[in-house]
Amino acid sequence: MNKEDIKRVIERLLHEVEEEDIGISLFSTYCQAEDELLFFKEEDRVRILKIFKRVSEDSQRHKKILMRVIEHLGKKYHEN
């Protein structure tokens, strides 16, 4: 890959990181604002909150992976 290709990939990945941040924020907000889910039955609410928590955790892991890839590509960019 040449420098321009690496730069384009990094920019796309940075956009993905921003989207992950939005998802993390959204799901974290729902996990903290249980009262917004009161129209669900209690057992469904518990399940929904577990799903939100799992998705938020997955988004955090995905963001960390993206950041490692960006860091690696940044090193490659500066090597060329």
Fold and architecture overview:
With 80 residues, this protein is mainly α. It has one domain. The protein has two helices and no strands. The longest helix has 38 residues, at 42-79.
The total count of strands amounts to 0
Estimate the global geometry from the Cα principal axes. Answer: rod-shaped
Helicity, as a percent range: over 70%
By secondary-structure content and strand pairing, the structural class works out as mainly alpha
Q: Main traits of this protein?
A:
single chain, 80 residues, mainly alpha, 85% helix, 0% strand
Q: How would you sum up this structure in a few lines?
A:
This protein is mainly α. It is 85% helix and 0% strand.
Could you give the topology of this structure?
Blueprint: H1 3-32, H2 42-79
Helix pairs in contact: 1-2
